[in-house]
Amino acid sequence: MPKNYSRAVEFVLLGFPGSRELHSLLFVTFFCLYLVTLMGNMVIILMVCVDKRLHSPMYFFLGHLSVLEILITTVIIPLMLRGLMLPGMQVISLAACSAQLYLYLSLGTCELTLLGAMAVDRYVAVCNPLRYSVIMSSHTCIWVVVVSWLFGFLFQIWPVYATFQLTFCKSNILDHFFCDRGQLLKQSCNDTRLAEFVLFLMAVFIIVGSLVPTIFSYSYIISTILKIPTASGRGKAFSTCASHFTCVVIGYGTCLFLYVKPKQTQAAEYNRIASVMVSVVTPFLLPFIFTLRNEKFIEAFRDVLRRCLRLLKD
Q1: What is the pTM of this model?
Q2: In this structure, which of 205, 250, 282, 286 has its CB flanked by the most CB atoms within 10 Å?
Q3: What is the mean pLDDT of the chain?
């Protein structure tokens, strides 16, 4: 008769399979990616705060996106690194498990909502440039960001609460490096088919709901750009939204790959790889996507760097 874990106070995370050497290699790789992610996003936040040239709606949203990336990676990666550094299985309390899952899903929902808002911002900038400052006023931008954060944290209360109301009587061992919902459902002895279907619909609502304004915005953006008579004009117009478009493709692609599937309890290896893409690789890439080809940001960064070097010399 299986042990009843419905009142368990902890779960056991198996982490990554493989040898000690592989774990050491993964630890170094993920630790370096985490450090670069933190530094890259912190530089973006700092630059948006201190340089007046970056005091515009696009960079205001980008600053909040960077905050979300730092928080999302910090919720997942330190626990992952701990599991790679220490041999054997690691234990996580029920409260910590529910908190981690809730923060991870809530922050991810905030990020998708903000990406949709950024798409609308790019639409206004390209298609209605003369009214841009009126439509995207500071009051509007603050309102959009507040709604994004509130929606993300309120929307995920019920899904996480419903998950932890299940009876985990099969096992308390999760074949993952964090408290993955699919693994939690897999260990439940309740009939989870209805719960999985509802969670699938909610994931579709979040992703498609934020993707729809993005698709409409870029449809109008592309239509407007194609009407510009000169190649240089078209290139300049497209450069204003190229970084966000790249971010949308990567962000939504990985989320669709991981979350929008009717069967939440898929193979552990599939979920592990997809989770690494969402929580490690994508946050690592985003600072580079938004800064390397952004001339205004690079110019502002060089000026701030020169001022800092001057102060050090003095």
Answers
A1: 0.88
A2: 286
A3: 84
